Amino acid sequence: NDADPDDPWASAPQVDERWLDFLPHGSVGTRSSDGPVWSPDGDWLAYVSNGVLWVIPVTHDGDPVGPPRRLNNESTAYLSWTGDSRSIVYLSTDGLRRVWLESGAIADIPVPATWSRTVPEGRTVIHAGALFDGVSDELARDVDVVVEGNRIVRVGPHDAGLHRGRVVDASDGVLSPGL
Known about the structure:
The protein has no helices and twelve strands. The chain is mainly β. The relative contact order is 0.11.
C-alpha cells in the first residue's frame, strides 16, 4: 500500500461504493464546477451535461426515480442549491442566475460590482535585496525599482540618490515585479 500514513483520507475505506449510470452515454459533470451536486433534502442531483443544467430525482441512496430534466439552455457552472432545495444558483456566461425547480423560472441575481482599484499617485522607490524577473537565471541583487503612479519606470542597481519621497525597504526580501 502506497498510502501516505499522515493523510487521514488515504486509508479511508469506501463503503458500498457503486456506479450510478443515470445518463447513459453522457457526462454528469467533472465534480469541480459543474456537479453533480446533491440537493440539501437528498431528493435531487443537479449536474451540467453538454454545458447546460440538468436535475434528476433520486432516492437518498442516489438511485434515479425519474428521468433527467433540463433546466436551462445556457452555459452553466458553479452550481449551488438553495437551503430549501427549491432552486439552484449558478454562474452563466452573462452572470449569476437562479432557477426554480417547480416553475423553471430563471432570474438574474444582481452583483453590484462597484469596487474599483485606486491608482496610487506619486513616486515610490522599492529597495529590494533581490529581484526575480522571470527571465534571468539568477536573482538580481541589491536593486531599486522606481514606480510612478501605477507603472514601473526603472529597475536597476541600488542608487541611494533615488531614495527620496516614499521608500519601501525590502532589502531583506525578494521582489517579483508584476506579480
